[in-house]
Every structure is written in structure tokens, then in C-alpha cells.
Design brief:
Length: 385
């Protein structure tokens, strides 16, 4: 049976296009259905994903090991708090956000001569010193950072619209939009811009130059790639991504304290990009969501999970945070042994396997087909007498 004339030329859109349209629509609809805990969890995952994408550009694409990501996240968070708050200049929050990201980039630029000339474990040790130095400065500069107790975070506001629950009161389709709902869309916008910038960077000439540097520094220099300059640029870009992640984290936490920005945070970000897949934007996002959400979910459901103690107590087993670290530590080992390219590589192999299975389908599997016309030899052959 032939197809109707009006639909013969229509083709189904590719699955990738449908996914690119469906995922943003789903993310935009979530605040109408989720409560504050899940929205706050999503904000933490979004902020972590932005920072993980920046670290993936540096470590996964450029091949530069960094253990100082927590330092630049702290620069972004405290930079915004000081620039937008009191004591401080009291700048408009959007301007404070931009300047905080620029401040993190400036910190990366000051360290970039080291990043341009040192690589591997030596760069890792050098950046590790930044974490301890930064923690000491956060505790010592009490007038700026608030010392051990930290500082409250000024809310984001555009004109007369504040990302809080009161100013002004907002009701959308019968759903009250508080601070989490409003920050959700701000986080989505910041992440979309970060994702788009990173994808364009990787697909352009700078991304190809960084990949060449990672694979072979000698071959890249022969091809005309300025080794020190590209390494330094990658470090600055990664620092700016970390600064933006720090601003969003500060807005989500509503209070920043120095102890959060320690070595454990840098290790968490390394785990994110290893689990997700080095050099992949989508993989860094998946790894960030896994590492960030796991301890929060285990803390929420600690009463229903065996061998876990309730948050704030030590009776009954491990605390949720410690148990989560053991789990994603095991995930890192499993990835290194079984899937060195992380979740992104595993997903790519699954897609290729699915495509091969589809290509092997026989005509009988796809339904009845029209009879084949006789071959030319059969048409020209005369019957024998």
C-alpha cells in the first residue's frame, strides 16, 4: 500500500533534535511540580556542573592537573558577597556577579605564568598550595570574609525584582514562586550560557589546539601552537568558570563559610570529571550531578538506608557524607578500570551498539515490503522450446 501523497515527503525529526527540545522544556517546568528540597538540590547540581565544565576544559581537554579549583570557587563566592554587600562597595548584584567572575579570572591570570610552564603532578602540587593559602586568607581577612563564621549572601536582584520569596510576591499559574523557584531559572540561564561557550570553544581552533597540547606537546609546537600561551589561557577560562560556580553556590547557600572551600571540594570536582568523562561537557555535567546529589539524597533518606546514621549523629553507622564519599570513590575506581572515558564514553558506546542493532534488522523485522521487480536477466530470457 502506497503512502498518502500529503505525508510521503514528511520525515520524523532526529532523536537528538527531539531531545534538545524536550530537555529544556522539562527543566523549565520542574519548579511547578517540585518542592524546595529538590529545587535546592538542582541548584547545587547546576552550580557544580558549571565548575566541573571549567575544570574539564583545563584537565580533560588541555591535560593540566589542577587541585586548586576550590580556591577560585571561593574567590567568586566571596567576591560577589563583598562587592554586593556591606561592608563592601554595595554594587548592584548583577554587576557584582560579573566583577566576581572577572576577579576569579584575574586570580587565574596571576597564577597563569606557573600554569604555562609547569605541568602534571608539579602543577597539581602548585595549585594545591592555593587551597591552603586561600583558606588561611579567608580566616584572616575577617573584615571582608567574616572570618570563621562567614557572611550572609546579598540576594540577586534585577531592578525591582529580587530573587527572594518576598520582593515582590509572585504567583505563576497558581504556584507561588519563592527564592528557590526564581534562582532555578537564573541557574538554568547561567548554565546554558556556560554550556554554549564551552561547546563552541571545544569545536573551534582553541579547542583543537588544547587537544593537540594534551596529546603531544612537541607535535603541537611543531604545528605552530603557542604552548605556554594556550596553557595559561585554559587556566584563566577554567578559573572564570569556577568563579561563576562560586557565585551561584553562594546564592543557593545564602551564607558562605571558609571551611566549605577546602581540599575536599577540589577532590570532589576531580571526581566529577573523572566519573563523567575527561574532556566532555555532557560528561562533566553528569558527573557533577552524581557527586553533588549523592550525599544530599543519602542525608534525606538516611532513616530508610541500612548502615547509615542520621545527620548530626554517629550512632547507627556512617554519616551520609562519609558514605557518599566512599561510594563515589568506588565509582572512580570502577570507571578507571572498566570505562576510562567515563559516563560519556559509556553512553557513546551504547548509542553505537544500538545503531548497529538497528542496521542489522532484516526486512521481515520492519514489516511487509513491496514485491521486487524481476531482474533484467529474467526479463530478457526467452522460454526454451
Amino acid at each position: 500500500m502506497s503512502e498518502p501523497t500529503g505525508t510521503a515527503g514528511l520525515r520524523r525529526p532526529p532523536a537528538r533534535t527531539v531531545l534538545l527540545l524536550a530537555v529544556p522544556a522539562l527543566l523549565c517546568a520542574l519548579p511547578f511540580y517540585l518542592d524546595a528540597f529538590w529545587l535546592r538540590l538542582g541548584l547545587f547540581c547546576t552550580a557544580a556542573a558549571i565548575g566541573a565544565v571549567g575544570l574539564s576544559l583545563l584537565t580533560g581537554t588541555a591535560g593540566q592537573l589542577s587541585l586548586g579549583h576550590a580556591f577560585f570557587i571561593a574567590v567568586g563566592a566571596y567576591g560577589y558577597v563583598w562587592l554586593a554587600g556591606e561592608p563592601g562597595p554595595g554594587l548592584p548584584p548583577p554587576l557584582a556577579l560579573v566583577l566576581a567572575v572577572a576577579l576569579a579570572g584575574l586570580a587565574g591570570l596571576l597564577f597563569s605564568p606557573v600554569a604555562g610552564r609547569v605541568r602534571g603532578i608539579y602543577l597539581g602540587v602548585a595549585t594545591l598550595a592555593l587551597v591552603f593559602l586561600g583558606h588561611h586568607l579567608l580566616l584572616a581577612a575577617g573584615t571582608v570574609t567574616g572570618g570563621f563564621n562567614g557572611r550572609s549572601v546579598p540576594p540577586m536582584a534585577f531592578g525591582g525584582f529580587a530573587f527572594t520569596a518576598q520582593q515582590p510576591e509572585l504567583l505563576v499559574l497558581g504556584v507561588p514562586f519563592g527564592a528557590e523557584e526564581r534562582l532555578w531559572y537564573l541557574g538554568l540561564a547561567l548554565f546554558a550560557g556556560s554550556w554554549y561557550t564551552a561547546r563552541n570553544l571545544l569545536r573551534g581552533r582553541p579547542g583543537r589546539a588544547l587537544v593537540a597540547l594534551r596529546d603531544s606537546e612537541t607535535a603541537a609546537s611543531v604545528l605552530g601552537v603557542a604552548v605556554a600561551r594556550h596553557r595559561s589561557a585554559a587556566f584563566v577560562v577554567s578559573s572564570m568558570y569556577a568563579g561563576l560556580a562560586g557565585v551561584l553556590l553562594a546564592l543557593a547557600f545564602r551564607r558562605v563559610v571558609p571551611d566549605y572551600f577546602g581540599l575536599a571540594l577540589s577532590v570532589d570536582y576531580l571526581a566529577m570529571i573523572v566519573i563523567g568523562g575527561l574532556g566532555s561537557v555532557a560528561g562533566a555535567t553528569a558527573g557533577a550531578c552524581f557527586v553533588t546529589a549523592l550525599p544530599l539524597l543519602m542525608a534525606r533518606y538516611a532513616d530508610h538506608l541500612p548502615f547509615l546514621a542520621a545527620p548530626g549523629t554517629t550512632e547507627g553507622g556512617l554519616g551520609p557524607t562519609e558514605a557518599a564519599r566512599y561510594l563515589y570513590g568506588a565509582a572512580v575506581v570502577l570507571v578507571l578500570l572498566r570505562a576510562p572515558d567515563g559516563l560519556h564514553g559509556a553512553a557513546a558506546r551504547l548509542r553505537r551498539a544500538t545503531a548497529r542493532l538497528r542496521s542489522r534488522r532484516t526486512p521481515a523485522d520492519t514489516g511487509p515490503s513491496a514485491p521486487r521487480p524481476p531482474s533484467s536477466a529474467a526479463r530478457t530470457k526467452e522460454p526454451t522450446s
